[in-house]
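Notes to self after the Tuesday call (sharing in case useful).
The group wants a holo model before anyone commits to mutagenesis around the pocket. I volunteered. Ligand is adenosine-5'-triphosphate. Logging inputs and output together so the record is complete.
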Amino acid sequence: MSNQRPAAAADSTTALRMRGAAVEVGGEVLWRDVDLSVEAGQFVAILGANGAGKSTLVKAVLGLVQLASGEVEVLGSPAGQANRDIGYLPQRRTFDSSVRVRGVDVVRLGLDGDRWGFTLPWGKNAKRAREIVRQVIDVVGASSYAQRPIGQISGGEQQRLLIAQALVRKPKMLILDEPLDSLDLPNQSAIAALIKRVCQEQGVTVLMVAHDVNPILPYLDQVVYLAGGAVMCGTPAEVITSEKLTTLYKSPVEVLRASDGRLVVVGEPEAPAHHGDRHAHVHGSHA
Ligand SMILES: Nc1ncnc2c1ncn2[C@@H]1O[C@H](COP(=O)(O)OP(=O)(O)OP(=O)(O)O)[C@@H](O)[C@H]1O
Ligand SMILES: [Mg+2]
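Result:
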């Protein structure tokens, strides 16, 4: 990609590499044989049904979950060692309506002066800090509600401010666990477009767990599909085919090409358990 950070060392454009990675939970293999290589500035989605192990995969990247076998290298170091350079949004964050702290202050909490070249005392840099926070809020399109108490704005608006909080840390990598969860389809698309722009303009590598590939598909450089302990990684064109997804899910999945060339995945299965809170999936007429 043309807007990546300049390479400091021969291998520095590889942001994430997993080799033969496997994780066990409760003594059973959750997934295995993950071979993934992500270049700096790529936007990667991690997909799969509830319980497939998506959150566990990002926790393994953060070094919060140990591998049963294989290796994970993140930003040139073993998992866990470069977490200072990673902005992480865990799954399911909402603010109770009684939370009075303003959105802008939530974003400000993410600001780490060192990263922007600030020197102490912090107070002297208050104006610059305010300006940085303002710019990041502008990037995520949250300016019109950032002054309001975060508990009193919508779930989607909260998500944008949380993405701003992660971005204001100036991370090299962003790990977002289902940031689109409470968003309607147009907003899922808008946030994916925004994330893509951050990848391109700032060279930030993004791993995003998502539930529905369709609204974000045009923006993705790679997809990682998890199902039944197996994993498929690659570009959308490589992985998102009827044959591959049907094999992975062991049930019929159809990939259609719309008249404008977009791919549409139809009939992607859901896990039977605890997904009643999710929006309905598109199902093919045969499903
Ligand atoms: N610490 C743990 N101990 C035991 N089992 C665990 C642990 N962490 C996760 N699991 C199990 O591993 C499986 C995968 O969990 P994970 O949270 O990674 O799934 P997910 O794909 O993120 O699902 P969702 O879409 O619901 O968020 C689940 O069955 C979960 O119960
Ligand atoms: Mg999860």
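Two things stood out.
The first helix runs from residue 54 to 61.
Residues 25-26, 30, 48, 50-56, 91 surround adenosine-5'-triphosphate (ligand 1) (CB under 6 Å).
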